[in-house]
Amino acid sequence: MSGTTLDDYTDRYAERMRGMSVSEIRALFAVASRPEVVSLAGGMPYVSALPLDEIAELTAKAIREKGAVALQYGSGQGEPRLRELICEVMALEGVDSSADDIVVTVGSQQGLDLISRIFLDPGDVVLAEAPSYVGALGTFAAAQADVVHVAMDADGLQPEALRATLERLRAEGRRVKFLYTVPNFHNPAGVTLSEPRRDAVIALAEEHDLLVIEDNPYGLLGFEDAPGRALRARSHDRVIYLGSFSKTFAAGLRTGWVLAPHAVREKLVLVNEAQLLSPSLFTQTVVTEYLEHHPWRDQVKVFRELYRERRDATLDALTTMMPAGVTWTHPRGGFYVWMTLPEGMDSKAMIPRALTHKVAYVPGVGFYSDGSGQRELRLSYCYPEPARIREGIRRLAAVLSEEAELRAVFGAGPSTVDVRRRGLDMPGPELT
Amino acid sequence: MSRRVLVLAGGLSYERDVSLRSGRRVVDALRRAGVEASVRDADSGLLAALDAERPDAVVIALHGAIGEDGALRGVLDLVGVPYVGPGAQVSRVAWDKPSAKAELREAGIPTPDWVALPHETFRELGAQSVLDRITDRLGLPLMVKPAQGGSGLGAHAVYLAEEMPAAMVGCFGYGDTALIERFVEGTDVAVTVVDTGNAPVALPAVEIVPADGVYDYAARYTAGTTTWHAPARLAPAVAQRVASIAVAAHRALGLRDLSRVDLLVTKDGSVEVLEVNVSPGMTETSLLPMAVHAAGLDLGVVLRDLVDVAIGRSATVPRRPAHTA
Question: What tens digit of pLDDT does each residue of B205-233 get?
Fold first, then answer.
């Protein structure tokens, strides 16, 4: 008798599915959804701040007046009027674009998947910041690409590290398919690529024939400065730009876009049609109506103020409560603070203790493809209100003290057990 | 007979996700067996919901603290709602692995040698010297696991002395007391014990063969990574011994209705009890549903019968202690 694995399809799965398994971290996060837990884990936009009644009305009106179109299939590239409005949104960051070169996607996450499909073969090299967005790493892993991380600091990606990496890979005979970067209010690091470095990155791209994927969901959510000029504003043919309405409007509408050079755009549309036939015409209609008939720039200001207050609460609480030896970044926009713990600490191994104290964060290892990030973690301040943020950080400080004491008692460094990485250790969508 | 059953799942425990899956499966199984069943979380609205809905019985699909440590069962006793499974007091003992092992050993049931220590002990007496005494006494390899909890969370096999500190830190993340147990090489089997009114009966043992040797969280809940054999590939005499030891463990701990006993069978056929679960997993990859299937039974019917046992039990027991005149 052969027994059962409870999976009769084992020998049929594609090679890329090998090693994917249920993650205990993901399971532990089931607890984070309970109201008792202060979740500093999820990067969920605070959509309660939207004018819900007005959105209900404009949606109802759109269905009444345009329902026969809005509830139909659409085009694989997305609706022309929405693409024109997207050009206006990008113009705020200096991007000069044509609606013809835009492809509407189901959130920019799907844009990433489209790009992976048209550019990546198994074993191809992708460069990404260290750390990098977990959802992008998941997409690149699904494409069986090899992610090579490039160092960053408080001013974002380090051009000299990028140059060294490009030269090393060239010497090794390995071709880099593209650099994936989040220049504004980085997820998870919270930092922003400085002006001079933007020019340096583009210069390196020219010099090394490098394609840059600029992922910019947070660009309009700066607390202190006017939006910086996008990388795409500095180069038309070296940069593919990913945008999203998830943070400036509503994540639940899953509407994003890709702006790409003409030849690439053609391929994106073909793959988009193969994947979806068309992105949802209904949600595109809602977004179009919102952009045309609602003062959406004022709403972005509302979000900015709200997130600024939460960022301030976070940084104040960290300064007051964190034990010595803990460091963190100082975001000037966006959703995230990136924290580094003292030597010997292990943020993933600490998760159960954190949940016992009813606070949640995302461990750093998920943001690297090479298993590093053990001492790092991401805090999101976008969702909880300031008083809850302070309480969450108070709890986190207690967790860190207890963990440090325990490690001192046992003289234990980072976990040597349980570091096996089993394929994708992706948290759920609410954590990305 | 129509019965309305409330299935409790979720809870504020590390096994919340597993519990939610167990709960959904229990509801499906009960409905297929003609029982009106719904699922809800054990949260601050629970007591009001029990008052409003007055279910005929509760099935506890909560894993981890509140579902297994007796606390919730005590509250259900208090409000007079019958539930399937062992009572509050005995659950508290079964949930705490060192207490359960002590009772099993007292009853002459074999269980691997162990020591259970809170983290303060290591701090007060010096971690290394205590760890040295433990490895001297129990030898290597060892299993380190939280004294309370399931799903293999926080459990580590330790083969080398230098792996001990990290394993201890990992374990203490889940609770304040660690159970350190002699690691016994052998075949893992799980036996579901069911008592629908006559006497506890062992269902066929389920044998567990993890793909890479360790039955950790991922191996338990990722379909395709572990091979299970139900019934276990045991010689008839060994299978018989496994069954009778499981029933003896169920009795020794004073359990009722159903439990799952996890055992280890060594190469020479000797049997050791590792732990006993009063709220066994019911997910699609859980051991109890496999055992029920291997016995040729239907999970919904078994659960329905247990619901009837629970309802019958409450009908014969006064809900409040009678006062003497």
Answer: 999 998 877 777 777 777 778 899 999 99
